[in-house]
Amino acid sequence: MRKFSTSETDIKSKWGGILEWPLLSKVHRNSLDGRKATHLIRILKPFDFPVMLEVGCGLAEYSAVRKGHYTGLDNSFHYVRFASRKYKDCTFVYGDASHLPFQDSVYDAVLFACTAHHFSDESFVKALKEMRRVSRRYIIIDDQVEWPAQNRVSKFLYGMDRGTNNRTLKDVEDIIARVGQLKVVARDTYKSFPGFYLHGVFVLEVVSHLKEKREGL
Ligand SMILES: C[S@@+](CC[C@H](N)C(=O)[O-])C[C@H]1O[C@@H](n2cnc3c(N)ncnc32)[C@H](O)[C@@H]1O
To answer: What residues pair up with 52 in beta bridges, in sequence order?
Structure first.
C-alpha cells in the first residue's frame, strides 16, 4: 500500500500516536468538541448537494450532514478502515488532500471539516485548489478558530491539538481569497459542546459554476 506523507503540521505521532486509535479519538473529540454535526446540519439546511466528498474525513462523524451519497477521504489508514466498516452505504478512500484521486467537477459539495488547522497555509491553499477542481458547486470549510475572548482552558486545548496551525476567521478568509474563483455564499460560527471550541464555517461556491448558471449552460 502506498503510504502518504502527512502535511507538515499534522502530527500523527503526537501522544505516542494514541489518537490514531479510532475509539479513543472518538471519546476524546466527543467529550471536548462535541455535537458539531448538529450545528453544521443547521447551517447547511438551505444548500442542496446530492453527492458529497469529505476531505480529511477521520471517523466520518460528519457524514451525518449528507443529503445523498457520501465519500470520505483520509490519509489515516486506521480511520479509513474504521469508517468503512461503520458506514456501509458510504464510500471511503485512503488518499491525500493535495492530490485528490477524482476527476474534475464530480461532487456537488466538498467538505473540509476540522482539518484546515492540520495544514500549513501553503498546504491549505493547495488542498483548496484540489477541492475547487473536483467540486461542481460548493466547498464547505468548518474549522476551529481563535477568537479575542478565548479563555485559558480553550487556548490550552487548542495548543494540545495534533494540528498546529490555528487561525482566526480573518486568516481563513485571506486563504480563501488567495485561492480565488470562490465566492463566500454563507459564513457562520458556532461553539461545540461544552464550549471550548469556536468553529468558523464558510460555504463557498465555485465561481465557474456560477458563470455556467448565468450563461444557462
Ligand atoms: C481533526 S481530524 C477531523 C476529522 C473529521 N473531519 C471530523 O471532523 O470528525 C483531521 C483529519 O485530517 C486527516 N488529515 C490530515 N492531513 C491530511 C492530508 N494531507 N490528507 C488527507 N487527510 C488528512 C487526519 O488523518 C484526520 O483524520
So the answer is: 70, 109
CA of 74 from ligand 1 middle (Å) equals 6
Q: Are strands 198-206 and 182-191 parallel, antiparallel or unpaired?
A: antiparallel
Residue from 74, 84, 86, 96 to probe ligand 1 pocket by mutation (most atoms less than 8 Å from CB): 74
Q: Has residue 19 got a pLDDT over 70?
A: no
Q: Amino acid identity, residue 16?
A: G
Domain ranges of the chain: 35-214
Using one digit for the tens of pLDDT, what is the confidence trace for 154-181?
A: 999 999 998 999 999 999 999 999 999 9
The CATH H-level superfamily of 35-214 is Vaccinia Virus protein VP39 (3.40.50.150)
pTM over 0.85: yes
Name the CA radius of gyration of the chain, rounded.
16
Average pLDDT, the chain: 91
Strands 182-191 and 135-145: unpaired
Block residue for cell numbers 447547511:
44
Residue 58 Cβ < 6 Å to ligand 1: yes
Q: How far is CA 77 from CA 45, 62, 95, 157, in A?
A: 31, 18, 9, 25
Measured distance CA(158)–CA(160) in Å, rounded: 5
